Amino acid sequence: MNQRESIEKTKQGFEESFKADSYYNKQTRDENHLELILKSIKVEPGMRILDLGTGTGYLSFAFAKSYKQAEVFGLDIVEKTLEENRKRAESEGLSNLHFVNYEGMDFPFNDASFDIVITRYALHHFPAMKDTFREIGRVLKKNGIFFLSDPAPNDDDKERFVDEYMQMKKDGHIKFYTRDEWKEMGEGVGLKIVDGFETSIRFPRKKETSLEFDDIIRRHDETVIKGYGVEVINDEIWITEKVNNLLFQKEE
Description:
By secondary structure, this protein is of the alpha/beta class. The chain has a single domain (3-200, 243-250), classed as Rossmann fold. Helix content is 38%, strand content 27%. The chain contains 10 helices and 8 strands. Strands 1, 2, 3, 4, 5, 6, 7 and 8 form an 8-stranded mixed β-sheet that branches. The chain is globular.
């Protein structure tokens, strides 16, 4: 599958998922995690914030409401979902919130046009991460901030059980990255990690839509699987993943 096909697969999967307000989408909402993110980023009046992979605008709406004197832009490939976001923003009187569609590769913004770039639970769907980091570095101003939040593989998961597990949901999951991998990609475009913290996410999926589960379990070490707290409870499969929350700053 090439990059364009991967992006289209992700787009279709999430358009359907967001429209249905699916089980999975509800499980990824976490007000405590959201509050930690808001407290981790210093926002001043007049700043421009880009929410990369905004989806239904979980971060975008929170930042636009918390910082009325900042301009917030939610960027994503899901055109229909973004249109619904625009209607909601208008109904809530959020004139500082804007949603922009793109084709999934080059960002439709000028160089050095944002003070802050944020992203949550999105980057593991991006098929060309180094290119994405170049775009993040390009649109950030000098000394600008990039905050990413994304699940990570456990240290002992060398064969990436977790990626095979996540790929059962046909939404374009590519891979989870380690902190060191993020650090290396950031440094390649002048972004340095200056802070961070670790959280976790535990969520279920329906067993009836996970037909490959038994085969995946058989192919991987039992200790690795236990490390993710995998449990089958009635008709659900539960998994716990650690989450990297990393704050980068663009070097001068």
